[in-house]
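Handout, section B. The chain below has 291 residues.
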Amino acid sequence: MTRDASVAEIRERERQTRERQERERQARDRQTRERHDRERADREREDREREARKREARERKDPERQRRERQARERETREREHPRARWTHPNYPGTSPEKTPSSMASTVHPIAIALRSGERGYTLRAYLDDQRTEAAFVGDQGHLLLFRSVASMRKYLTRTEAHELAGIPDWEGVLERIGGTETEPDDENCYEFDLVVHSLRFAPTQWIPALFITNRDLIRELSVAFSIDDVLNLLTVGSPLDHLDDLFRIVDRPIAGWGARRQLASLQGGQASILWRKAIRGVEERVRWLR
């Protein structure tokens, strides 16, 4: 083979190699483009499916969301529509100052109640007797009226045409005393249902007697005032909650307290916890919020 023929053969092989490499490169590029196209199509399909799922979820949730929003609007409307409040207690004589105990005005005080949810509301309490055994509260149609703030309660009280609370002697003096107080009710007039419920998670020996005693007394006053019979039955003499209350009232005494502490240590907290929660829930079901 001549030298020129060898050179020509080498060049032909090189050309063929370049062509093969070019075809392979084009094939790889084509495969890459096709893979990218498939991946893009998959992503687009997944995006469409995801959006469709989100749209379906929104459509499913919309009625529930609309229901919640409607309930919130209705609740706010009810809270802004103040009812005609009155002193609520079976023995309250009505709006006649002549029939109302003369000492009642001096016992009117704002109180604060923190419910299980932690929401804090304000109302008034007044006693109908000198021994302070019969408490009347601000209510309407069997519901305890709780204001969202002290300021809104004071504003409502000054509009004597909006309620029937002014039918007691020296109502102007009551307003002056309440209106002149810019602070929260004092500790003796603050009640914490939420702290009671939190305490029920622990053993009875860890429960704070004063907390349970004060809140139990308020629950009983409210149950009598609003005739909440189910709760009164839980607090009746001889009931488990009445026995627990007796223990709390003597647990800190020097001698009798020793036996009370032993009984608390042996007490099964489960039943007491259930009954306490039931009593609080029974009272809270009679609450109506006002703004």
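Note. The two ends are 111 Å apart (CA to CA). Compare this with the example in section A.
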